Amino acid sequence: MAVRAEQKQKTRRSLMDAALRQLSADRGFSNLSLREVAREAGIAPTSFYRHFTEMDELGLALVDEAGVTLRQLMRQARKRIEKGGSAVTTSVDTFMEYLASNATHFRLLLRERTGLSHQFRTAIKAEINHFVIELAEDLRRIGDDKQRPLDEPELLAEAMVTIVFTLGAEALDASPKERSALADRIKKELRMLIYGAEAMSRIQRERNKPSSP
Predict the structure, then answer these.
(1) Fold of domain 1-52
(2) I need a surface site. Which of 41, 45, 52, 168 has the fewest CB within 10 A?
(3) Phi/psi at 148 (nearest 5 deg)?
């Protein structure tokens, strides 16, 4: 029984990998056919349905995998930050490492984020929201630890994720030199956002101070 379950999981993985191999900058998930993916995985098309009810279910599994992998890497980055690393530098470097190893996954998130499938858009929005929520918690904690609270951490986190995703898209097809320059640009823009949030928080505290008698 265990052997059968292991084989089933192995075939499911083969189908997911087969779909990833066929994705590219010019070919999105919606352009893949069940027959192509099954052939690439080395199984009969009818066997596909033992693992996924339809192609969209396979795609959603890839979206989930992409989000989980990124969140796991960023959690590892947090541990490095806790040991004294720069929050911005460590996070951006970790993200660039993710791009280098998971370009196809990230391309899938970018393309399907605004694609025709409501299922995909909803799933990707949920993954990004998970990322934003975790980042907002980190920003709130870092601000409190340094006694430099940040104004509206949730909005700040959302803006930071938008920058990272936008410039990350440019990094996908960039040369190593261009990618390094983009990483520096991301770090600078994120710091500008953080400094702005610190300043806004400081201004709010000044405004809320009771007037002298």
Answers:
(1) Arc Repressor Mutant, subunit A (1.10.10)
(2) 45
(3) -130, 75
